[in-house]
Amino acid sequence: ELKVEQNPLFLSMQEGKNYTIYCNYSTTSDRLYWYRQDPGKSLESLFVLLSNGAVKQEGRLMASLDTKARLSTLHITAAVHDLSATYFCAVDTRRSYNTDKLIFGTGTRLQVFP
Amino acid sequence: GAVVSQHPSRVICKSGTSVKIECRSLDFQATTMFWYRQFPKQSLMLMATSNEGSKATYEQGVEKDKFLINHASLTLSTLTVTSAHPEDSSFYICSARDGTRREQFFGPGTRLTVL
Predict the structure, then answer these.
(1) Nearest CA in chain B to A96
(2) pLDDT tens-digit profile of A64-109?
(3) Is A26 helix (H, G, I), strand (E, B) or coil?
(4) A104 touches chain B (CB under 8 A)
(5) Which of B42, B43, B107 has the CB atom closest to A42's CB atom?
(6) Which of B93, B100, B2, B9 is CA-nearest to residue A88?
(7) Does the beta carbon of A81 lie under 8 angstroms from any beta carbon of chain B?
(8) DSSP 3-state assignment of A106?
């Protein structure tokens, strides 16, 4: 059974600091997503990583994918309060056209304080 | 583009009643729709996958007779929670995908509270 684990589960960090969230998964996959979820809201898509070595950046967030290590990272640079949210990675488990599905990680709740 | 809506956004019902949640793709044809459930402070768990015109495929442990899914058109899927109980209270999120892309587009979610 595919498992997707994130760490840390909870991260409290000071504004201006840097930190990395890790996403480990237990089987091969060619596609990984990062999402943001604010309290009481649905998911907002952040990044789609499609190949080994893929790196994408948007503002203070940068995501990378190492398919050989089955590891993705979400790096936060110079955190600001607006980044406070829960972040999920999700692994696309493609079997066939009609049976692929996303397996979500455990989530990382990020709190940025002044 | 790729907008998915859900209705209602919030519903409160009495134990034993049935509740229907709609998921619509507004600007594309959704050949596949997915239904997720999220309990407080937990991750999203896939409940079922539905392809237009076919019976839904349920994940292990999800009762198909309790969570009825219909995907009768390329823009609408419904989830009916039958004989709801307080333990069914959760945040239900749908997503949709068209036939050309693998990426799923998520709806805004429906908060169900069963009293």
Answers:
(1) B102
(2) 999 999 999 999 999 999 999 999 999 988 765 556 789 999 999 9
(3) coil
(4) yes
(5) B107
(6) B93
(7) no
(8) coil
